Amino acid sequence: MMVCTSSTVAENGRNLLRENQCPSSTPPTERPTSKSKEEVNKIVEVSKAAQKSWAKTPLWKRAELLHKAAAILKEHKVPIAKCLVNEIAKPAKDAVVRSGDLVSYCAEEGVRILGEGKFLVSDSFPGNERTKYCLSSKIPLGVVLAIPPFNYPVNLAVSKIAPALIAGNSLVLKPPTQGAVAALHMVHCFHLAGFPKGLISCVTGKGSEIGDFLTMHPGVNCISFTGGDTGIAISKKAGMIPLQMELGGKDACIILEDADLDLAVISILKGGFAYSGQRCTAVKVVLVMESVADTIVEKVNAKVAKLTVGPPEDDCDITPVVTESSANFIEGLVMDAKQKGATLCQEYKREGNLIWPLLLDKVRPDMRIAWEEPFGPVVPVIRIKSVEEGIHHCNASNFGLQGCVFTKDINKAILISDAMETGTVQINSAPARGPDHFPFQGVKESGIGSQGITNSINMMTKIKSTVINLPTPSYTMG
Questions:
Q1: Count: domains in the chain
Q2: 54 assigned to some structural domain
Q3: Which of 127, 350, 388, 415 is the most exposed place for a label (fewest CB within 10 A)?
Q4: HEC readout, the chain
Q5: Residue 407 belongs to a domain with what CATH number?
Q6: One pLDDT digit (tens) per residue for the chain, 478 residues
Q7: Are residues 296 and 232 part of one domain?
Q8: 259 and 236 share a domain?
Q9: Is residue 365 part of a domain?
């Protein structure tokens, strides 16, 4: 079995490009180099100029170009998916490029939302005569900076690009260091669709080198970021501009005695181990009632034993995590839990960046993994004696992205959902982002603002009002 490391993943991505398995005859030919501050200034300047013209483009024409881009993305989803396999070690079954459908839906929704305005009259407010008419509509913000994460460098980039464009904004994309090639291929599909030059630009390079300069740039009017705790630093430095932040999560799975245990087991397996646990909506901690904990652990262990481990090109269930530092962090969490008495249901095994799937039973609150996000194929199990204990653990977390509850009692499920301090609660299913038009948001350190196509379009616009002042009516006193 070949073991992929971060360096071999990157090399495979470069090889894919050399083989010209890309969405056009003139794709990027090598991993992009870092931009200088002078280049960033030029890109933002060009983007601002392009946005001025784009904002005057009729809404139906914007939608038409987005539909064209959607068709091109669908035509080339296979080569883009191959890039994801080779560049970020994503198994083929997880490298699903759903971006075309998202772009099409966004075009239609944008026409509906942005095609409407409001008409208000002054005498609807006490003390006023009908002397003022107010016409309000949504207008673009200007330049939107989009920063997607390594694990979804295409789909989550498109979820930012399409709303920005239909709303009349220009877009500067900062692709992740891992996943930049696939992201640039996706952007090239938009260029092939015929969007105006300078409307969609890319700034490549390490965030540590140009991150602050880019996110604090005075020419940026909005930031949409998906990633880890870097987003907290961005929010503190960005200034008075709209922010859309999806950060980390410690998504809790609460399992009650009356749950469909087989369904819960399948959801833990999919939610905890898909793409090696490298998802913000992965199951990060299982809070299971003591009376059914043995059954859950036994059933999950049987499923974990059947997971395939190896390179992404073999479409294995578990593939290497993205960097050596990520693997080291995961190992640190496991060793801490082991030293403090957690039960390792499988032997801990690692080769380079490849970590074998692991279920940790009898985890306690004094263990790091009870609170920290591993972002890897490791799932901790905490046995609870009451529903209240599970809710308390969930709410004591610094995170609040998603959670899930397994029970056959819908009334109890709703009450637990109301009590959980998370952006979304899934009932009888693992945490999940989509469908892409659903609202998607976190609380506490899991984010700012709400995503989803409709929410993103609204966030990337502002209200413009025009007030018509009429002459004051004259009355004849009786």
A1: 2
A2: yes
A3: 127
A4: CCCCCHHHHHHHHHHHHHCCCCCCCCCCCCCCCCCCHHHHHHHHHHHHHHHHHHHCCCHHHHHHHHHHHHHHHHHCHHHHHHHHHHHHCCCCCCCCCCHHHHHHHHHHHHHHHHCCCEEEEHHHCCCCCCCEEEEEEEEECCEEEEECCCCCCCHHHHHHHHHHHHCCCEEEECCCCCCHHHHHHHHHHHHHHCCCCCCEEECCCCHHHHHHHHHCCCCCCEEEEECCCHHHHHHHHCCCCCEEEECCCCCEEEECCCCCHHHHHHHHHHHHHHHHHCCCCCCCEEEEEHHHHHHHHHHHHHHHCCCCECCHHHCCCECCCCCHHHHHHHHHHHHHHHHCCCEECCCCCEECCEECCEEEECCCCCCHHHCCCCCCCEEEEEEECCHHHHHHHHHHCCCCCEEEEECCCHHHHHHHHHHCCCCEEEECCCCCCCCCCCCEECCHHHEECEECHHHHHHHCEEEEEEEEECCCCCCCCC
A5: 3.40.309.10
A6: 223 333 333 343 333 333 333 333 344 445 566 668 899 999 999 999 999 999 999 999 999 999 999 999 999 999 999 999 999 999 988 887 789 999 999 999 999 999 999 999 999 999 999 999 999 999 999 999 999 999 999 999 999 999 999 999 999 999 998 999 999 999 999 999 999 999 999 998 877 788 899 999 999 999 999 998 899 999 999 999 999 999 999 999 999 999 999 999 999 999 999 999 999 999 999 999 999 999 999 999 999 999 999 999 999 999 999 999 999 999 999 999 999 999 999 999 999 999 999 999 999 999 999 999 999 999 999 999 999 999 999 999 999 999 999 999 999 999 999 999 999 999 999 999 989 999 999 999 999 999 999 999 999 999 999 999 998 766 545 4
A7: no
A8: no
A9: yes
Catalytic annotation, pick one of 87, 246, 372, 445: 246
Which domain range does residue 240 map to?
8-248+455-464
Question: Is 246 a known active-site residue?
Answer: yes
